[in-house]
Structures are given as structure tokens and as C-alpha cells.
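Interim report, section 4.2 (structural modelling).
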Amino acid sequence: ILNVEQSPQSLHVQEGDSTNFTCSFPSSNFYALHWYRWETAKSPEALFVMTLNGDEKKKGRISATLNTKEGYSYLYIKGSQPEDSATYLCACTGGGNKLTFGTGTQLKVEL
Amino acid sequence: NAGVTQTPKFRILKIGQSMTLQCTQDMNHNYMYWYRQDPGMGLKLIYYSVGAGITDKGEVPNGYNVSRSTTEDFPLRLELAAPSQTSVYFCASSLDSYGYTFGSGTRLTVV
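Predicted structure of the assembly:
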């Protein structure tokens, strides 16, 4: 079982602010890292799947980077909007597609 | 295209009762998973399956059973419900190393 940690646990930002959060994982026995967006009363929605060191992925105002050698990934949101308010989950697998999830970063974007 | 369908959405059980949480996917995904989500604990893997006829334990399998007789269906069985099984249960599916598609969740309370 991998130990996946996310920080911060929660974050309040103003509309228009850019923000980022961190996911840490063991750099040994790493296969893939996933990011999910989880809105209240809905189910988690896949954002990115990354496997290679140095990978960068982008979807609109959201992007992510991966450093497998030091065991971390960053998720960035540029120009936060109220609709970005959600919990952002990071998950890792050491192989076999069986994910271990972090506890998430809860983002609240205020007007 | 329904994705991953979970039923029921809510259920209250008495201690010692049994029930089956249903999960069906129509995307021909080979992998299917059951997670439970407890406050502050993140998603914990209960059981998973890599294909019809093949299941394996996750991190927290005690008190649960699964079967995978078809590609589409992956029911989760609680034999003797206990208060510790009060949780929100999510079924998910994936195709090899791609991101998961989650169901909408089942909120179970054991009293």
C-alpha cells in the first residue's frame, strides 16, 4: 500500500487568484499518478493521468506536473473561479492499476 | 451511455442485516473497484477485479464479499452489517491504465 499525502488539507482563495497544491508519494515502486476533481454531492472526475518523470498535462486553466525521482506532483489552477471549488484528489499506483488515494485538498474560491 | 451505475443511492440497515450494493458499467472496462469513503480518511479500496471471474482484496476487505460473473457487473455484499460499515461506497471502473470512471455513490448507515 502506497502512502500518498496531499497538502494543504484545505485552501480558501479569492476569485482570480492562481493557486497550487501538492501530492507526495514514494518515488520507489511508482507506476502512475492520477488527479481527480470531486465536487460536493457528485462523484470524482478524472483530470489527468501521468506516468513519466517531467510529464506536464493541461486542461483549460488547470495543469499538473510530475517529478517521479523526488516523489511529488503539483496541480496548478490559474485565475481561480467559483466553479473550481471542489476537492482535488491525487492517487498513485505501483502497478496493476490499483490506486491509493490521498485525502484530498479542499478548495474554496470566494467572490 | 450510462457509465457506472450504482444502486441504491441511500440505505439504512440494522446491525446484523445483509445487503448487496449493485454496480454496473457499460463501457466494457476490464477493471472494476469498490471504495469506501470515511470523513477525513480519503477513499479506501475494499475489493477490485481485473476481469470477469477474477477478484482480489484491497486495503479494507473485512466484512465484505464480491463477485464478478460478467464484465459489466461487480456487486458488493455485506453479510452481517456493523456500525463500522457506515460509510459512502463508490464503485469505479477503468480500462487498463486510464483514469477511473466513478459511480454516484451509495450512502449506507448501519444502526
